[in-house]
Amino acid sequence: MDVVIVNQDEVRQLLAMAECIEVMKEALEALARGHAVQPLRTITWLPDRSGALGLMPGHLDRPSVLGVKVVTVFPENLNTEYESHQGSVLLFDAEKGCLRALVDAGEVTRIRTAAVSAVATRLLARQDASDLAILGSGAQAGSHLEAMLLVRRIERVRVWSRNLEHAQIFARQASQQHPIDVEPVAQAADAARNADIICTTTGAREPVLLGEWVSPGAHINAVGACFPAARELDSSAVMKSRLYVDRRESAMAEAGDFLIPKSRGEIGDDHVRGELGEALMGRVQGRSSPDDITLFKSLGLAVEDLAASHHTYAKAIRQGVGTNVPIGGLRHEAT
User: Fold this and answer.
1) Which CATH fold would you assign to the domain 126-297?
2) With 70 as the cut, is the pLDDT of residue 166 above it?
3) pTM of this prediction exceeds 0.90
4) Of 216, 220, 265, 273, which has the fewest CB atoms closer than 10 Å, so is most exposed?
5) Which fold has domain 2-108+302-326?
């Protein structure tokens, strides 16, 4: 039985950001309807905490997808030739359990994370939002710029990185790739102040975005911190925002941006207004006024990876892309 392997370059070719945004919207709505199985991820740390192995299983009813993302997270890869997130998404037949595809997880994660932020931005940001701030200069910074340009008419972009040279390189390359000038700034405050949309895409463990910098009416996509002890936003930024999450259970277990102020008694569980899928379906209210500050805390879900990978796999089959490898799975008859 053949398994289709879709590599990093092929995922980039097949998984268009505009398409992925719609795929993510459908996956989040399916989750809100109860048409998905979404367990908490399992994290195994190396003894020195320098890296981790994550297992993210899940199931979607429509399309029928069963699978798991197996991914390593090595934050210190920032200064090497390797991405910080590497791994594969394994897609199985939901009827017979056969392995059907192995899809590069790093590229899927890069694209689908920004696509989910785009879904949140399209729903929660002001319609006239045009000033974008990006904190961080890595892979997610690039994909978020691409995604934000698809859902709002962006007229100004500022980027900040803890390494100014990295911000300058990012700004130069992004300005060449997109029809907009990207301005590097030396201080995070200079990027965030007066911004209509703020995307935090860093590997920071301590806050890089302070509430005092966030203007009324802003929308924030917080995507960088994904462990209970790490956060990109200070308590003030979270407290003054209407907070939405991809999954309540995940946020209550993993989102340091929420858990740290909660542990200090600054907010309670009711500070979470709802899941993004619930807001998409109108079950919870989104933005209620032009001055609301809205915050989407993204942790990343297996159902997002499965939906994006299945979309990629289906296109690979149609276009004859990918490598077929025979990996068994058929019963051996007794002789």
Assistant:
1) Rossmann fold (3.40.50)
2) yes
3) yes
4) 265
5) ornithine cyclodeaminase, domain 1 (3.30.1780)
